[in-house]
Structure formats: structure tokens, C-alpha cells
Write a structure and sequence with these properties.
The chain is an all-alpha fold. It is built from five helices and no strands. About 20% of the residues are buried.
Amino acid sequence: MLSYEFEKEAELLWRAEKKDNVLTTAGLMLLYLSYVGYGRNGEEFLQEASNMAKRLQLFGVRDSLNTEQIQSLSHGAQRALSQTAWGVFNLYM
């Protein structure tokens, strides 16, 4: 199946780069959902996505992003940030 090949490549890329950013956080959530969808344990990806979201100050930290910081972003960046934060929060909590 192609999905297994995509999973393997995504996992290899994540392990090689491990950069904190919104796209990586969202990618980890998709990887988690793919693993769980096939009945495998994807807990590592869920945990790392949550930890990354916290490091990016998306939720669960005392010094989260304030309104000024968020409003200084482009509309597209605000949307990506909020959708990723909401997605990780809902799956993790």
C-alpha cells in the first residue's frame, strides 16, 4: 500500500529534521491518525505533536502567544496556527 510508504517517508523526515513549526506539528498529527487508522500505536507522534505545540506556545503554557503576536501574522498564518492548535488540542486532550 502506498500509505505505508508515505508513513515511512514522513517518519524518516521527521526523525531527520525534528524542527518545531506549525507544518511539522500538523504532519505529526496526520502521521498519528494514519497509524491509529491501521490499528497501530501512534502515541509517540501524538505526544510529540502536543509537546511541539506547547513549545510553539499554541496552548498549555503560561506564556502563550498574545493577541498582538497573533494579529501581526498574515491571515493565512493565523488560520494555520489556530487550526493546528485546535487539532492537536482536541486529539491530545
